[in-house]
Design a protein that fits this description.
It is a single chain. The protein has helices spanning 41-48, 121-134, 151-162, 174-182, 196-203, 221-227, 249-254, 269-282, 284-288, 305-314, and strands at 2-6, 15-19, 29-38, 64-72, 84-88, 97-101, 105-107, 142-146, 166-171, 187-190, 209-214, 228-236, 258-261, 296-301, 320-324. The protein is α/β, with parallel strands linked by helices and 325 residues long.
Length: 325
C-alpha cells in the first residue's frame, strides 16, 4: 500500500506519499480500506516531531478515517467485510489501509457519505467525552467554546445546542463568527478585538460559563477561571498556548470549580471503546436526523497532505480538512 511517511520531522514538505507495508488484522482488529482521513492539530505536532504515537500504534499520522472493512481478525463480532465504517485511531489514517481495534469503529451514519464521514470520529469523541461525559453539560447551562470555527468547535456548538445549552464561542474575525452563528452559537466573541471574560460576563449577567472547552491551555488558564461560573467546569483539550501556568487555588475553591485535562490518543482501548459506544448511542441519532452535521472546509488528495497541513497551520479554515485516497 501507500501511506504518508515522515522520515524527518519538519515542515509540511516532510509528509511523503510512499510505499509502506500492508497492515494485518490482529486479535480484536479489522483492516479498513481507507476512503478518507482528516487533518488534526495533533498530526501537525507529530510531523514537527513533538507528538509521537503511543507504543504499538502506527507511525503514519492520521487520528481518524472512513472506509470499508476488507479483513476481520479473530475475536471480532458485529462487523463484516464490506461494512462501511468510520473510526477514531491512535495513528495510521493517512494511508490506503489501516488496522483498527473493533471497539473504535462506528457505522457511517445515515445521511452522510463515506468520504464526509471521516470528518466525524475525532471531533465527536473528543467533544462528547469532555463536554458531556466529564464536564457534564446540562440543558440550560452555558458552554464556552474556544476556537469555535475549528473542527472541534463546530461540533461542540452543535452538540451544545442539541442538548439545550446556551453556547458562547471565541473565534478570530467576523466571517468565522458568522459561521459559528449559523451553527447555533448564541454569544459571539472576537478574541482579536474583545476580552472574552468581559464579554461573557456581560452576556450572562455576570454569571459566566458553566462549562468551558479550551484548546489553548496555559495562556488562557487564569482567564478561563475568571470566566467560569460557580460550580463551573473547565475542560482543557489543547495546549496551543503553552503547557505551564499558575493557578489560583483560592479562586478555584471560591467558585467550587473543577479543571480537567484529557488526551484521547493515549487512552486505553477499553476507555476509547466506551467513548465510542456512548457516541453511537447519543450522537449518531442526532447526525442521522440532521440536527448535527459534519462541517468540511476542503478536501485534498492524500498525496497532497502537505497542502492541507499548510491550511491547518494558517488557521484560515472553518471546520475539517479531509484527505481522500
Amino acid at each position: 500500500m501507500h501511506a504518508i511517511t515522515i522520515e524527518q520531522p519538519g515542515g509540511p514538505e516532510a509528509l511523503v506519499w510512499a510505499e509502506a507495508p500492508d497492515p494485518v488484522a490482529g486479535q480484536g482488529e479489522v483492516v479498513v480500506e481507507v476512503a478518507a482521513s482528516a487533518v488534526n492539530r495533533a498530526d501537525v505536532l507529530q510531523r514537527q516531531g513533538f507528538y509521537d504515537p503511543p507504543p504499538g500504534a502506527s507511525r503514519h499520522p492520521g487520528l481518524e478515517c472512513s472506509g470499508r472493512i476488507v479483513a476481520v481478525g479473530e475475536g471480532v463480532s458485529g462487523w463484516s467485510v464490506g461494512d462501511e465504517v468510520c473510526a477514531v485511531l491512535a495513528g495510521g489514517g493517512y494511508a490506503e489501509r489501516v488496522a483498527i481495534p473493533a471497539g473504535q469503529l462506528l457505522p457511517v451514519p445515515a445521511g452522510v457519505d463515506l468520504v464526509t464521514a471521516a470528518a466525524l470520529p475525532e471531533v465527536v469523541t473528543t467533544v462528547w467525552s469532555n463536554v458531556f461525559m466529564v464536564a457534564g453539560l446540562r440543558p440550560g447551562e452555558t458552554l464556552l467554546v474556544h476556537g469555535g470555527s475549528s473542527g472541534i468547535g463546530t461540533m461542540a456548538i452543535q452538540l451544545g445546542k442539541a442538548v439545550g445549552a446556551r453556547v458562547a464561542v471565541t473565534a478570530g474575525g467576523k466571517e468565522k463568527l458568522e459561521r459559528c452563528a449559523e451553527l447555533g452559537a448564541d454569544i459571539l466573541i472576537d478574541y482579536r478585538e474583545q476580552d472574552f471574560v468581559e464579554e461573557l460576563r456581560a452576556a450572562t449577567d455576570g454569571a459566566g460559563a458553566d462549562v468551558i472547552l479550551d484548546i489553548v491551555g496555559a495562556k488562557y488558564l487564569a482567564r478561563n477561571l475568571d470566566a467560569l461560573a460557580v460550580n463551573g467546569r473547565l475542560a482543557v483539550i489543547g495546549l496551543q498556548g503553552g503547557v505551564k501556568a499558575e493557578l489560583n487555588l483560592g479562586a478555584l475553591m471560591a467558585k467550587r470549580a473543577a479543571v480537567t485535562a484529557t488526551s484521547l490518543r493515549s487512552r486505553p482501548l477499553e476507555e476509547k471503546a466506551a467513548i465510542v459506544a456512548a457516541v453511537r448511542e447519543h450522537v449518531w441519532p442526532l447526525v442521522a436526523t440532521g440536527r448535527v452535521r459534519p462541517v468540511v472546509h476542503a478536501v485534498y488528495p492524500m498525496a497532497d497532505a502537505a497542502e492541507a497541513h499548510r491550511v491547518m497551520e494558517s488557521s484560515a479554515h472553518v471546520g475539517k480538512l479531509l484527505l481522500t485516497v
